[in-house]
Amino acid sequence: MPDKLADMRTIKFLLHEVLKLEELTQYPYYEDHSRETLDMAADTAYQLAHEVFWPSYQEFDQEGAQFDGHKVAVPKAMHEIWKQCAEGGWIGPNVSYDDGGQQFPITIHALACFLFNCGNTAAAMYLGLTYGAAHLIKTFGSKELQDLYMAKLFAGQYAGTMVLTEPDTGTSVGDMTTTASKSPDGDYYLLRGNKRFISGGDHDLTENIIHAVLARTEGAPPGIKGLSLFIVPKYRVNGDGSIGEWNDVTTTGIEHKMGLKGSATASLTFGDKGDCRAWLVGELNHGLRYMFELMNMARVFTGMQAVGVASAAYHCALEYSRTRLQGRDITSRDPLEPQIPIIQHPDVRLMLLKQRAVVEGCLGLFLYCARVHDQEHAVTDPEEQQRLHMLLEMLTPCCKAYGSDAAFESIRLAIQCHGGSGYSEEYPVAQMLRDCKVFSIYEGANGIQALDLLGRKVPMKGGMALQALNAEVSKTIAEAKELAPLKDLADKIESLQNEVVQATMHLGMLGLSGKVNQYLCNATAYLEMFSHLAISWQLLMQAVVAQKVLDAGSTEENFYRGKIETARCYAGYNVPHGIATAQMLTADERTALDFKPEWF
Amino acid sequence: MKVVVLIKRVPDTASELQVAADGKSVVTGGLKFVMSPYDEHAVELAIQLKESHGAEVVVLSAGPPETKEIIRSALAMGADSGILVDTAQLGALTCRGTARLLAAALADLGADLVVAGKQAVDDDAAQVPERVAELLGIPHASVITRFELSGTTASVDREIEGGQYTLELPLPALFTTQKGINTPRYPTLPNIMKAKKKEIREVPAAQLGLAADSLSAQATTEAMTLPRQQRLCRVIEGDNAQRVKELVRVLHMEEKVL
Asked: Cα separation of A85 and A91, whole Å?
């Protein structure tokens, strides 16, 4: 078992040297903070990840969430994890003092999410969902709803969920059939319908569970424009805050999943007895819009979950490769020479390096997005806010889709480093692969992310969002070109950037000429190419900082050189791939569109 | 009631240590430093006394200015204030010098109880707290796994090989904590914010009025090496007498551990 789940030195490098998080303290919301509070929070999050989350990681998989036909029990160790996180203020570290938080940057919240997922991804699910439900109520709920639920959710006295999926409605959210009808006295709605795949949908962690449910009211327009958001407690809460009657929310089962087994994924029936009370959040028919307003960060967090697992897997592989003795140098001819650690074999080293590049590149991207989000909320200039928001919009699909796919591939390599042992459940990497798979599926399947990127984000505001991002990439490339040792790397990444621009313009012409299906048929490949550029750019940003430190003289030469060579490796292997994809896109590859289903 | 906790800043044991070019010291750049884990048990004990007996908890450490970070961690666990004896101007300190500095800083604090971890995980010397107690002329018990306060007497269990002593000591007294006495709490985010506002008083070592030669190191480090990491297995053949002789020779001459 590894001693390490993530490299805190890298994390401090990202927070302070690359992202300059401390600069946020000049804005009123963060003025009580300092490098010291940010570091203490980061260090404590790692300590919790390592000492509270991680020890029960395999236990969560073996024990799983249990359903006895009536109620759901979480793995035993989850109770202590929940207690530590609730008492520690980790459900909403970024929310205001008034709402029970400590006004930390969301970058710190994102980092904590990453670290908790390094430790035990199934356990971290319960926290994220509770934050999500509380955040919806805080942003869009009435004062009554806020008074009843918000503080208790942020404090971990209640847990929360996000309820969208139905047995016949997954990705196609607009087709959902759960209905809400106004109660006779008009004070609340009565909900009726079945929901499925509800993470944290039922459990014994807290005295109450607050569901944020999408449903359709009578007479609402069809499709996504007819969905409204409701708050539905498992138990009704009396005016004085005490727990009242059961609210006719029935758990009918939990899923038996490939991974993430400690996270209870429930099927729920609302209103089986005709008395499931639901309270509207905000305005009628705005439900999906509300959900989407929170979606950017939720999707960034999903990528973060995946890469958290990949980070733990990478450190398992690194430790294994350093201690596992096998074979000799390829030029050695003496069978009696001592065997060498497998990290000395270039093929193994490359596998480790690829994992490291994914982990550090994606983590850099996620924290960059969180930092942009913080900045957007700190500044007051509307134009700057819009620019920052567009950056986040552009990068979100990459965080979610590329993050989850690259994490899965990275864990595959971690298993490969372990050889046969990696295929055995005795080592944790097999579980990590299983746990990680879901992140490419939920929170908007990766194919949907690709459509979001190419269909919505690229054309957004006449291409302004894409331009804003391109300008940032160009800025980093220009900075790198100023540093002689990075010039060739910067040129390489610039060549990919040019190809991406060309391919985008080519596709744009298809879109403008009405060939929408053709425009979108390679959206997944487009997202991958785009992400290769985004991650190359992030790693280049890290390399620029590292090169400057080295030029100024540093006692940590290995650390900073490692950053530069990681960027070089990622670009070396992925830029050619990205360029080839761009060429495929401009050559109008369209087999997927033309291949008839009956030809299968 | 005033409880003073002695803590030490040490490299995180999960860090990968490198020996510096001089062959006598550790490369500290990029190294993560933490509060020595046994000290966390001492801080926890003190905070529990704060909760149960309203004790005032003061954290005391001697070290470079960066030591404030670990004092701040103790404050985030719930200690009330901190004192740093700044040793930046001093040369290398050994247990003797550190103990004298801490004892001098403790002299006018009026502590009813002094607690510390049973040893620091960097040099594992397990000497400083006991030396402090001797310098202050107060009773002490080390490696305790239970602590109970009754009036001005403390009843403790002290771990020994294969058993334990139960001791009663009159206060003021000093104790060093062993794992198992409690579970140190994690700083909560609200307490991290509160810790920022708590006072850490900095005392330059020179202000304590100790003669330089009373602090100077009595031992010098000649060389420092990392333990060899290769896993080697070797079977020694022969009858018992031969094998013992060969084993001692290998340990002494080849492995140089005897």
From this structure: 7
Please report, for residues A9, A203, A486, the alpha-carbon distance to residue A548 in angstroms, rounded to integers and kept in the order given. Answer: 17, 51, 11
Query: Which of these CATH numbers, 3.20.20.190, 1.10.540.10, 1.25.40.20, 3.40.50.11540, describes A8-66+74-139?
Result: 1.10.540.10
Q: Residue B21, exposed/middle/buried by CB under 10 A (0-12, 13-18, 19+)?
A: exposed
- Other CB atoms within a 10 A radius of the CB of residue A102 amount to 23
The partner residue sitting opposite A40, judged by closest CB among B187, B230, B231, is B187
- Tell me the DSSP string of chain B: -EEEEE--EEE-TTS---B-TTSSSB--TT--EEE-HHHHHHHHHHHHHHHHH--EEEEEEEE-GGGHHHHHHHHHHT--EEEEEE-TTS----HHHHHHHHHHHHTTT--SEEEEESS-TTT----HHHHHHHHHT--EEEEEEEEEEETTEEEEEEEETTEEEEEEEESSEEEEE-TTS--PPPPPHHHHHHHHHS-EEEEEGGGG---HHHHS-SS------PPP------PPPS-HHHHHHHHHHIIIIIS---
Place of tokens 């579970």: B183
pLDDT digits (tens, 9 = 90+) for A467-506: 999 999 999 999 999 999 999 999 999 999 999 999 999 9
534-593 of A, contacting B, C-beta below 8 A: 554-556, 559
Instruction: Reply yes or no on whether the pLDDT at B229 is more than 70.
Output: no
Active-site residue set of A = 443
Q: Are strands B2-6 and B56-63 parallel, antiparallel or unpaired?
A: parallel
Instruction: Write the DSSP assignment of A449-472 as a string of letters.
Output: HHHIIIIIITTHHHHHHHHHHHHH
Tens digits of residue pLDDT in A137-158: 999 999 999 999 999 999 999 9
* pLDDT tens per residue, range A168-208: 999 898 999 999 999 988 789 999 999 999 999 999 999 99
**Quick check: B186 and A48 CB within 8 A?**
yes
pLDDT in the model for residue A153: 97
Q: For residue A77, how many other CB atoms are within 10 A of its CB?
A: 19
Q: Which residue of B has its CA nearest to A7?
A: B15
pLDDT at position A2 is: 63
What is the mean predicted confidence (pLDDT) over B212-235? 80
Tell me which chain A residues have a C-beta less than 8 angstroms from the C-beta of B72: 36, 40
Q: How far is CA A409 from CA A11, A260, A355, A420, A578, in A?
A: 22, 17, 8, 17, 17
Q: Which domains does chain B have, with CATH numbers?
A: 2-215 (3.40.50.620), 227-258 (no CATH)
The secondary structure of residue A252, as a DSSP letter, is E
Asked if B196 lies within 8 A of A36 by C-beta distance, the reply is yes
Expressed in angstroms, the distance from the first to the final Cα of chain B is 48
Q: Closest residue of B to A90, CA-based?
A: B189
**Model pLDDT, residue A12:** 97
Which whole number is the average pLDDT over B75-85? 97
B30 neighbourhood in chain A, CB within 8 Å: 9, 555-556, 559
The size of the A-B interface in CB pairs under 8 A is: 59
- Evaluate if residue A1 carries a pLDDT over 60: no
CB–CB of A428/A415 below 8 Å?
Answer: no
Token output for A411: 């864990």
Round to whole Å and give the CA distance between A178 and A160: 19
Domain A294-327+339-442 CATH superfamily: Butyryl-CoA Dehydrogenase, subunit A, domain 3 (1.20.140.10)
Other CB atoms within 10 A of residue B92 CB:
13
Please give the share of chain B, as a percent, with pLDDT higher than 90. 71
Closest approach of A69 to chain B, Cα-based (Å)? 37
For residue B81, pLDDT beyond 90 = yes
**Domain A152-285: CATH architecture, name and number where available:** Beta Barrel (2.40)
Structure tokens at A562: 């490692």
